[in-house]
Amino acid sequence: MLSPVKRGALFYLSFFLSTGSFSPFLFIYYMELGFSGRQIGLLTVFFPVITLLFTTPLSALTDRKRWRIQILQVAIAGGALFIFLLKFPRTFGMVALLLVLLAIFFSPVMSIADSLIANMATHHGMNYGGMRLWGSIGFAVSATVCGMVWQRFELTPML
After folding, report:
1. What is the pLDDT of residues 82-91, one digit of tens each?
2. Quick one: which of 17, 120, 102, 113 has its CA closest to 73?
3. What is the CATH number of the domain that holds 90?
């Protein structure tokens, strides 16, 4: 059984390790698929707009129903599934559909996770920032290592 501080740090580390392994490279992948600058720009807008529209209502629902952990698990699993599925479509429409679904699933993840971990930190008298720092370290390491791998082996095998 991990201590609460280790659980919080491990969540941030693993979440941002995974995010750093794909998010900096998505737009390069879209270029490799042959999408135009306009299409890539449209794909870029999905995450912030959907996050703006879905995060608050989904987070409020999870708080009201006390479904934080269950919704977080579903959101992370669904997000991972849609990231995996992004390697298959070759058309703009299918990639856009998957990105919309990915954004819907991922939109509440950080607000729910932050609230759970901040509550846990307060309850146990832990340093929230110290746990959160592991996410930043994970993202930086993952993006750097995956960038080096991509330069060596091309992007397609990474996805």
Report:
1. 999 998 999 9
2. 113
3. 1.20.1250.20
